[in-house]
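Anyone else keep sequences and structure tokens together like this?

Example one:
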Amino acid sequence: MPGAAGDLRRECDLVIIDIDGGPDEGRRTLLEMSGQPGEPELEEGTKIHLTSHAIGGDQTRYSFLDINRATSVWAWVAVTALAIVVVAAWRGVRAIAGLVLTLAVVGFFLIPALLRGGPPVALSLVTGAVVLFPVMFLVHGVNWKSAAALGGTLTSLAAAAGLAHLAIGGADLRGLADDSNLLIQLYLPAVSVTGLMLAGFIVGALGVLNDVTIAQASTVTELAEADPDAGPLELFASAMRVGRDHIASMVYTLVLAYVGASLPMTLLLSVAERPLMQVLTSDIVATELLRSAIGALGLTLAVPVTTAIAAVTAQVREQANAPAQARTRA
């Protein structure tokens, strides 16, 4: 329920709140702030969310829930979308459309299916395929380059799913060090926490795989156009030199992203005076380490697979384009 902080005195624990939604809209209430660590310092005009609790009769008690950040968040989203469109032009517009489609598939298919207790691995793989087919061709066009990237991504994604299953089972990861997973186990017993972790591994690897596969397919396409007489082996060898650079840079990006996600918990574990090896192999840190490892393995596999597919199909593309080029010259 929304509200706004009114007449605030910093030295007091009571804040006057103007309620602007719900059954008590237009009224005021007092909100008691306990001053606990992490509690926000409310200023006059601050928009907040409240929770309501019936305390008997017609009386309602309100408690602080969170800051209303809608304006700030959507403003940054708009700025980001505008920057993408300005720099990438129509391709940026198609990329944003693909992102919206991806979020729609996750929100309206994957999440409801997981809540119904569906198999997380199968659902995440189906989600990846459903997203990739339209998005790949929407963003990069209907061509052999997109088809090669799609084939490489799906192959690597399936391999990453198998590797993630082996990693989670072999390391006996349970995910129960994460408070969110504990709440899921408590309130959603039909949802498998380990299965959900596995689905997270797969979905997390999807984005980086898509990035590197389209880059490799584009590289092979450019090489084939520059040298139409180059055979598949020559194209593969040349493109792999570029692919090794992609692997090196993307592995750093992938690992650092996951390290950043687990940094607060790693900091807490480090001050607990536990041995370094115990910290690194604790449930929550090991989860992020293995997530990084699976993503890196999938990435490493995606480069040669996509390069091989694009190199083999390059001659098919040239043969298909030859009649059209001959008619143009005629």
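And example two:
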Amino acid sequence: MKVLAALLLAFGILHSNPACAQSELETVSELDIKLFAGLWFEVASYPAPFQSPDCSGTTASYTFNPNGEVKVWNQCYLTQKRKLETIEGRAWVPNPLEPGKLKVSFFAPLSADYWVIALDSAYRYAVIGHPSRKFLWILSRSPEMDEQTYSVILERVATKGYDLAKIRRTPSLAQALFHQKFY
């Protein structure tokens, strides 16, 4: 997992050049990190080279620190190996005038862009992207998301230049365990 996380950061650094992007990716104009903190469930994402395709029940937990940084703790259940995989890092907002443009690091001094490109007003869902549009995560406060909300999110990310054909639903932990038990 550490090697995969390092690949993520290298990818982020290589692809953070604005010339790689179609147009400037718009982020949220307001983000309250204290409200953003907590547990998020990955509902869907672009497949990423640093994230196992065998992951289910993927979560991201964010803890606000008094210094303004955020502790990041990601985990997923590896279905084939039947074990949890975790990684810890940190995130921060480099420019308070652009609160949706976070940086994330799992291996200092390397960091990558982690941009909040959509956010429910009650912080029930969030969409994380990258200026290159090569990475995308749809997060929810609950393990499952209703189809109407999911469809609205897909429409929003399509208008931001993301290819909907690349998005893959992330199985919940309950789905993975059910599949293991009965198949």
